[in-house]
């Protein structure tokens, strides 16, 4: 059995996941093999870090720039300096992603309408890492499962286009996949599988 969610470019052709078939243990094994395959593919990266300087926020108070905001938010999450507004923003983008299975380079600030491009892999990598950190910080099991669910889908998207990832994006993707695997293992342990 193969893992059916990464066999095409999910940015060009998103999957809704609505009518996904139950695949049992074989499906879990295919998922695990997909993630191991991705990590093996990305293992060619030597050293480095994804802690880069924040890009300058362009001068436009009406537009939300995803990469700038996601980098800033990830830094806050990693240093435990988040507040309720940060959580609300993460939850807003969880909903935005769940509707279209895409993230955009820009959104309007007044109503978060999408703008720009939907194929900037840096944004997907950053948001996947944000979800991993968010998962650790939220307490409600429902919010944890929603974050994990969206993390799986974003990592499916990254796995499907792994050949297109730039080196700096690969470092972020490795971090997101490892976090997903840690969460997955913990869930399996909880339910004794």
Instruction: Return Rg in Å.
Output: 16 Å
Nearest-integer average pLDDT: 89
Number of DSSP-assigned strands: 3
Structure class: mainly alpha
Taking the alpha carbons of the first and last residues, their distance comes to 20 Å
What is the general shape? globular
CATH architecture: Alpha/alpha barrel
**Strand numbers in spatial order across the main sheet:** 1-2-3
Characterize the biggest β-sheet.
3 strands, antiparallel
| Number of spatially distinct domains | 1
Explain how this protein is built:
By secondary structure, the chain is mostly helical. The protein has one domain: Glycosyltransferase, CATH 1.50.10. Helix content is 57%, strand content 4%. The protein is built from six helices and three strands, in the order αβααββααα. α1 packs antiparallel against α6 and α2 (66-78) packs parallel to α4. The radius of gyration is 16 Å and the shape is globular.
What would you say about this model in short?
This protein is mainly alpha-helical. It has 6 helices and 3 strands; from the N terminus they run H-E-H-H-E-E-H-H-H. The chain has a single domain, classed as Glycosyltransferase (Alpha/alpha barrel), CATH 1.50.10.10.
């Amino acid at each position: 059995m193969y893992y059916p969610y990464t066999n095409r470019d999910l940015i060009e052709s998103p999957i809704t996941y609505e009518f996904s078939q139950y695949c049992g243990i074989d499906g879990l094994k295919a998922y695990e093999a997909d993630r191991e395959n991705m990590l093996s593919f990305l293992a060619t990266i030597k050293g480095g870090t994804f802690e880069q300087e924040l890009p300058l926020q362009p001068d436009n108070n009406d537009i939300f720039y995803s990469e700038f905001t996601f980098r800033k938010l990830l830094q806050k999450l990693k240093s435990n300096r988040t507040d309720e507004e940060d959580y609300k923003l993460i939850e807003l983008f969880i909903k935005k992603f769940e509707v279209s299975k895409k993230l955009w380079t820009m959104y309007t600030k007044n109503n978060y309408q999408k703008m720009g491009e939907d194929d900037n892999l840096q944004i997907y990598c950053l948001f996947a890492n944000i979800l991993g950190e968010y998962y650790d910080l939220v307490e409600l099991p429902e919010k944890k499962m929603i974050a994990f669910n969206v993390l799986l889908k974003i990592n499916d998207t990254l796995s499907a286009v792994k050949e297109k990832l730039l080196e700096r994006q690969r470092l972020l993707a490795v971090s997101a996949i490892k976090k997903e695997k840690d969460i997955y293992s913990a869930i399996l342990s909880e339910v004794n599988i």
